[in-house]
Sequence to fold (440 residues):
Amino acid sequence: MSWNPGEVLRLVDSLHRDKNIDSEYVFQAIESALVSAARKQYGEESEIVITIDRDAGTLKGSCNGEEIDPEVIGRIGAQTAKQVIIQKIREAERDSLVDEFEEQIGQMVSGVVQRAEGGATTVALGPVEAILPRSEQIPGESHHANERVRAIVYEVRPQGNRVKVVLSRNHPSLVARLFEQEIPEIADGVITVNAMAREPGYRSKVAVSSSDTRVDCVGACVGVRGNRIKNIVDELSGERIDIVRWSDDPEVLIPNSLQPAEVEQVLLCDMIGRAIVLVREDQLSLAIGRRGQNVRLASKLSGWDIEIMTADELEEQIERAVTGFCELEGMTEELAQSLVEQGYLSYDDLEVIEPDALQEMGGLTDEQVELIVNQAEERARQAEVVAAEERRQRKIEKIEEEMRAAAAADAQQTASPPSETDAATEAKEDPEEDGDANAT
Fold:
């Protein structure tokens, strides 16, 4: 095999036109590879220079200042150039796929499951095998070979000559893309998804609005007899979806986001981004939700730190906060009242207050502000120690109670006489005893 200048020029030009790779970059890559190959023959310490004529495609080289035999260069160059060009073609194809899938990050794609093993699922997306890791799957769901699956393109990166595409089914974007696909009014721009909060596999909240007063945004998303939202829920393995009406006014949006609970009043504490939401006693557990899920999602949706309580609980907290704040050296009752009105209800809150804000509210010096904040930090730490000890004691009491209940159950089972059913069963299991009884 010998060096063919015309063939090399043709291949380099083809790479430039078809794969959009700079010709000079390819020439330099071939020259660098030729030098590496020549060093294997002439020694790693040799000073070797090899160049390719960009117009004629001919080779010229030297080793330690002496010209290398053109035939030797040709033999080295033919195989090396072929390998470099093949490598550049693979890299170009990889980079093209990387660019293609990077444009789809955050978008929904549909593919066919190839295999599911070790928790990860491999999905065929045209020329690429994408990965749906266990961590990006909806909790509790499983996938099988040849199943069609929809997911979000989550991450794209080159890996050698290949492209690694990571998919996600637990990203909030999947819900948004499904809404766009199932609800034409969203695709047309009549209805807008303004905010979204999701706990994959369990519950999502989606806030929507309509630019056309004749179109009910919530009703359109639900569909006739709930058919539209049902398709989305089915795709998400039964995940519950709350559709709420969006508002720029937090006092309207927050009650909407806490549905189905009924809210009596919303008190906004702008300085700390907290919203105190008052509900009736019978709505308290509904507003908070199972394990705090409803209020947690509502907080994410609205962008406010929501705290649910009844009017009586708020009054108790206010009294406790004012009393506690007044115990701090340098604190006046007037300042304590002002802090409470701004939503600061605990020593933890005082830890994060802006010194300038506290200084302005109370007309304090820098030293007085520092003193108050330091005292609040210390009391907050003490309160956390007490709370941790209370949690530990409750845990111990619960374990002891469970042990006592188990012991009582064992004792009752031991003391109970055998029932007629038990006696009949024992008789059937002992044929000799059964025979004696019949004889009698």
Q: What stands out?
A: The chain has a mean pLDDT of 86. The radius of gyration is 37 Å.
